[in-house]
Amino acid sequence: MKGFSELYLTLDASNRKNEKLAALRNYFSVVPPEDGAWAVFFLIGNRLKRPIRMTDFRKWAGLACGQPAWLVDECYNHVGDLAETLALLLSERKRSIRAQDRPLHQVVQEDIIPLRELGLEEQRKRLESIWVHLDGSSCFIFNKLITGGFRVGVSQSLVATALAELANVEPAIMAHRLMGIWKPTPCAYKALFTGSHSEDQTAKPYPFCLSYPLDEIARSRLDTISKWQVEWKWDGIRAQLIKRGNEVILWSRGKEMLTDQFPEIVEEAASWSGSIVLDGELLAWDHDSPAPFSELQRRLGRKNVSVKMRNDVPVLFMSYDLLEFDGVDFRNKSTQERRSILQSWSSGISSRYFGISPLIEACSWEVVLRLREESRRRRVEGIMLKRKEAPYHSGRKKGDWWKWKVAPYTIDAIMIYAQLGHGRRAGLYTDYTFAVWNEDSLVPIAKAYSGLSDHDIRKVDRWIRQNTTDSHGPVRVLEPKQVFEIAFEGINESKRHKSGIAVRFPRILRWRKDKLPKDADSLKMVRSLLAVDS
Length: 534
Hints:
Distance between the termini: 53 Å
CATH topology of the largest domain: D-amino Acid Aminotransferase, Chain A, domain 1
CATH superfamily of the largest domain: DNA ligase/mRNA capping enzyme
Number of domains: 3
Radius of gyration: 26 Å
CATH architecture of the largest domain: 2-Layer Sandwich
Number of helices: 21
Mean pLDDT: 89
Largest sheet: 7 strands, mixed
Low-confidence stretches: none
Helix content: 25-40%
């Protein structure tokens, strides 16, 4: 446990890719398979199901260190991370027992997972007996694993790169071995280095090929349009449709299995002959065009999709790439070749639940630019550019896939509430709520926490502390004086929000120090964007 805790702290403290890569290599080169399996499980983004209610966890930690609940809450509001808060408070108590360093797999399998089956009093006693044997850093990581707040600044691709170097294979091969549902067993961990583990191979997706945003510099360097495949950038959920044998599975880019949420697509694919793996987009579909993304969201998170939901929110799998056909990996073939095979195969498919992303025929970049301006009307996000000779990469490779999105919506809004951030931003007010005018009153319109520089965050934090008028728990109520320009991708009607609308992917563009509160936008103006987005 101590070695894993030290790895976490090293990764969390560094912003340098090479330092993180070295730390991962050093850890995985000596860790036993039993611990390595769980380390991979957590580092690639998996979480344990919470075994304890957070209110109980917080209360019991306070009791263990002799502090009242209100003081624990105050400390949490200041620190911004519950696991760290409790570790700090627990470290202040006197220890009569020497800390023990137990293997990570034992802590997970013998301490954390069995907590789910215990009664409340047994849970409390068990936690106290565990805490007393942990040193400060191990207590911190243990608490993070319990709370499900284990986040560290490494991507799955970086973990794959470190493991690939140790296994002496290409990172793309290791990335594929890590795809799907990772089972933290010694056998699965050893297979990362041998490639011999065959469990669940029929369900395993490929790493997704990802694109870069097309900025003005990259756009000016694009070569002749004849070398590019041009498509619409669909506004749905990226997914791989896998049919191998009699099994059909839908995987999201976030490694979520979506099979149960889109049963009609799975049923349709089950009728196809042979095996195939397709890359594409899950879309809510309205006759012959995409429906708003908010409609698709009604499908997500459901264990069972009723007949009524199928009728209310019809869906389509819009395929735009072929990765595997009849057991043969096609990713090293060119974009043009893969597209040709996809079109040939799909000519025998006729289904209301399946489509192929149409190619945009354009003789010049000026034509593409004009078509891009139609994106909102078509309910797409913009244009995709794919180099015709490029293979299907694992992850991002600059220069082969570009996304050329339309400019986001922007509004000027007033910051009215603030909360402390988490992790690297703990102790600073970085989570903000913004409002617009509804006649003479302000109505909340969006929450945002990204977009400001570290320098501006510190200045905003200082202003917040000096201009708080009230507080509701961890939320500070602010003087409505500061105007910010907010960007977002889409806007929809919403009965859940006081404003009656919901915006998609809000973020801060800039702090408008040049504007007064009266210059902020109105709800009427924001609602007028609904017509633009429809």
